[in-house]
Write a structure and sequence with these properties.
Aminopeptidase; alpha+beta; 11 helices; about 375 residues; twelve-stranded mixed β-sheet; single chain; 3 domains; Nonspecific Lipid-transfer Protein, Chain A; five-stranded mixed β-sheet
Length: about 375
């Protein structure tokens, strides 16, 4: 079996395998190979066996965007299943991501056992909430409703800045950098509303599509309460037409603190897995706000990771002068499995839970003190 980067000449082959695997009703993309994305194709003597896609992302953790390879489109041709094709593709992807400087990797696990076997583990959620219109109408009203208008091309940079200001405060969200993300696609959406103050300064935005079964909200992002409630008022303006509104959760403050949810709510949750591809690089790239309040200290790790040997073995995580780094050495007193690194790094699980799951042994309170992540790590983009 050989694995290579696929090209536009492989379009029909890759799309055929994706259609078999996912039965997607979406129209095929105009181009298979696009900026910010790298595809791998496994083949045997020219016979295609499977493929996957690596998206060039960055996820916010601790207020800093960490380079991340977003794995998607993992497919194996039916006749080639059971031959280790997907595992070989993932091993190649790990090496590729490290070479590209992507110290983390995220994916949505259609086959959890496959990805757990290569070191990915559950580390956060993507949530959608369906709000009955009568509940939205019970939500607070804006005391100072701001002006709104439709977005134009001239607004795209400001909209992206508005998003990243929020995303930097929510662990797990992507920074949506170009060229992987194309900001101009916002202009094709049915709803692209901006909210701004009297001086024209952007305070928030709402994007959505009107679908047959209702309004599907992609982003509701705002810098403050007045902007949040102004955009909420736009949602309630659909009360004469729609019974419900489907909202993708980007800002947990909006869905969790401002809307009048009942005790039971209708929610769809997609779980995502995270993997630390290169521990020293990931730790160097992450923000560590809690480190500023900690005394100098260290945790001697023994990293068990047969699929990423470059960081396996004894590594010392050091906290010093408010900074955090990983360097070779130490006693290896705390054994940590590759699967434990993702949920610890994201803040999804503490060391007690990882220990009960058999993914960590030894006492390491400093690991918990460092992450101290509020809320549930989340993505707001599916790939």
């Amino acid at each position: 079996m050989d694995i290579r980067e696929y090209t536009e000449d492989d379009r029909d082959t890759v799309l055929r395998m994706r259609k078999l695997a996912f039965a997607s009703a979406q129209p095929p993309p105009e181009k298979l190979v696009t900026p910010g994305r790298l595809g791998l194709l496994a083949h045997d003597g020219g016979e295609p066996l499977g493929s996957l896609l690596i998206n060039d992302f960055a996820q916010f953790f601790g207020g800093r965007a960490v380079p991340t390879g977003g794995i998607g489109g993992v497919v194996v041709d039916p006749h080639a299943r059971g031959r280790g094709v997907a595992s070989a593709l993932l091993d190649t992807a790990l090496r590729t991501m490290r070479e590209q400087g992507q110290s983390l990797s995220a994916l949505y696990p259609t086959v959890p056992s496959l990805y757990r076997g290569r070191g990915w583990e559950r580390s956060g959620v993507l949530e959608r909430l369906v709000f009955p219109m009568d509940r939205l109408l019970m939500s607070p009203r804006a005391p100072h409703r701001l002006a709104t208008r439709r977005a134009t091309r001239a607004d795209l940079a400001d909209v992206h800045a508005c998003y990243t200001d929020l995303a930097a405060t929510v662990d797990g969200l992507l920074d949506r950098h170009a060229p992987t993300f194309q900001p101009e696609k916002l202009l094709d959406l049915d709803v692209a509303t901006l909210v701004h103050d009297a001086d024209g300064v952007l305070r928030g935005y709402l994007t959505a599509d009107r679908e047959r079964d209702g309004l599907k909200v992609h982003d509701l992002v705002a810098a403050d309460l007045d902007a949040q409630l102004t955009l909420l008022a736009e949602l309630t303006s659909w009360s004469g037409v729609l019974d419900t509104v489907d909202v993708r959760v980007v800002d947990p403050a909006f869905t969790g603190l401002l809307t009048a949810q009942a005790m039971r709510i209708e929610m769809s949750v997609s779980l995502w897995f995270l993997r630390v591809v290169d521990l020293p690089a990931a730790v160097a790239a992450r923000g560590w706000p809690a480190a500023a309040g900690l005394k100098a200290g260290a945790v001697d790790l023994d990293v068990v990771d047969e699929h990423a040997p470059w960081h396996a073995g004894r590594q010392r995580l050091v906290v010093d002068d408010g900074g955090v780094r990983v360097e070779p050495g130490g006693s290896g007193a705390v054994q940590v499995h590759a699967r434990a690194l993702g949920p610890w790094f994201s803040g999804a699980q503490g060391t007690a839970a990882l220990r009960r799951a058999g993914l960590l042994s030894g006492e390491a309170p400093l690991l918990d003190q460092l992450v101290a992540a509020p809320g549930n790590p989340r993505l707001a983009d599916f790939f």
